[in-house]
Design a protein that fits this description.
Elements lengths: L19 H5 L17 H14 L2 E3 L2 E5 L6 E3 L1 E4 L1 H5 L3 H14 L3 E2 L9 H9 L9 E6 L4 H15 L4 E6 L7 H6 L4 H10 L3 E7 L4 H13 L6 E5 L10 H4 L1 H6 L3 E5 L15 H10 L4 E5 L3 H13 L5 H15 L6 H4 L5 H4 L6
Parallel strand pairs: 4-5, 4-11, 5-6, 6-7, 7-8, 8-9, 9-10, 10-11
Antiparallel strand pairs: 1-2, 2-3
């Protein structure tokens, strides 16, 4: 099994959900309403899917391209995850993987300030030399919740990535009830990101998290109360999430309603879902692609795994409702307790739990 940050954190401690009254409360001043979305009907998502599929009529080298929400940027249906690139034993192989992906038509690159002690960003920066930066829509993430920590991490990421601009900067691991208020507080990380955006270092702003859809909703609500709308949001979207504490059911409709770019991650749960023997890698990728996602980000630590992802994007055809139902029926029993979604049910994937100093 290939696990992200599996040496960090403890197992089997659930993150508490927000209180029911907090989950149900409507946002104000920004129009992000949660009421009615928590039990969102499948038919509505199917309608959104139809619109998203038509928006993917463009392609590069056979890889479908779509629009990243309100940013209107064109991005590849598949995105290259940054964590696994730093785990590859050979740095030159990491560079080959990134450049091959860009040459094949994948333009969306994922990374994070804390991945592998910065090694993932360093390798990506080296790969983006010799004209490759122009081919990429470059995303990275920061952990800083304070303005000082966020500023430092933004500047360090820019140095490592050897660029003067990050296309999409995201707050990483929004997994605690306290994260939204810390980020938006006076002296919080959002101040640093907005300053970086004004200075031209950052183009678009988003956030990520994998713990609880209710915390994502709180982050969206907090942003709305501060008169801010995110450009993109990243979350797990896969064949297991559909059944258990579901980002697909709770958060996805809110993003679509507000034209926020949808970044799906963990299509295979960092390979853990594959251990359930209920779906193949390509089925996992196609399920996530079939949702109204702007990009499906997947980890690629070798050229064969990259080619599997590229071929899955090229071969993707919209799934009909009976195909979706059959796949979800196969995964329902395995998914019911979250045992294959360890990022929700344990601290195994929580880098900032093991390293709280990263938050500032």
């Amino acid at each position: 099994m290939n696990s992200k940050k599996n040496q960090q954190g403890q197992e089997d401690e659930r993150h508490p959900n927000l209180p029911q009254d907090s989950r149900a409360k409507d946002a104000t001043d920004g129009g992000i309403s949660r009421r009615g979305f928590l039990g969102f009907a499948a038919a509505s998502i199917l309608l959104a899917q139809a619109g998203e599929q038509s928006a993917r009529s463009e392609s590069t080298n056979g890889i479908p391209y779509g629009t990243l929400g309100r940013s209107k940027e064109k991005v590849s249906l598949i995105g290259l995850g940054g964590y696994h690139l730093g785990k590859q034993a050979d740095p030159q192989e990491s560079i080959r993987i990134i450049r091959t992906g860009l040459d094949e038509g994948v333009n969306f690159l994922d990374n994070c300030w804390d991945y592998n002690g910065g090694e993932s960003e360093i390798r990506m920066g080296n790969a983006l030399r010799d004209g490759y930066r122009q081919k990429a829509f470059l995303m990275t993430k920061i952990d800083g919740r304070t303005k000082a920590a966020a500023t430092s991490q933004i500047n360090e990421s820019l140095r490592r990535l050897q660029t003067d601009r990050i296309d999409l900067l995201q707050f990483h691991e929004v997994i605690r009830d306290t994260d939204p208020d810390r980020i938006f507080a006076e002296g919080g990380g959002m101040g640093a990101v907005l300053e970086a955006q004004k200075a031209g270092k950052v183009r678009f702003i988003g956030f990520t998290g994998h713990k609880s859809p209710d915390i994502h909703l709180k982050m969206l609500d907090t942003a709305s109360k501060h008169g801010f709308t995110f450009d993109a949001v990243q979350m797990p979207l896969n064949v297991m999430d559909a059944h258990f504490d579901s980002f697909e059911k709770k958060v996805l409709p809110v993003l679509l309603k507000n034209d926020i770019g949808v970044l799906g991650m963990k299509p295979m749960g960092d390979h853990v879902i594959l251990e359930s023997k209920t779906a193949t890698p390509v089925e996992c990728l196609h399920y996530a692609m079939n949702l109204p996602t702007s990009v499906v980000i997947t980890g690629c630590d070798s050229l064969p795994i990259l080619q599997q992802a590229v071929q899955a994007a090229r071969s993707f055809q919209p799934m009909n409702s009976s195909q979706v139902a059959a796949l979800l029926a196969r995964t329902a029993k395995a998914a019911e307790a979250g045992q294959f979604e360890l990022y929700k049910t344990s601290h195994r994937f929580d880098g900032t739990y093991a390293n709280p100093q990263w938050l500032g």
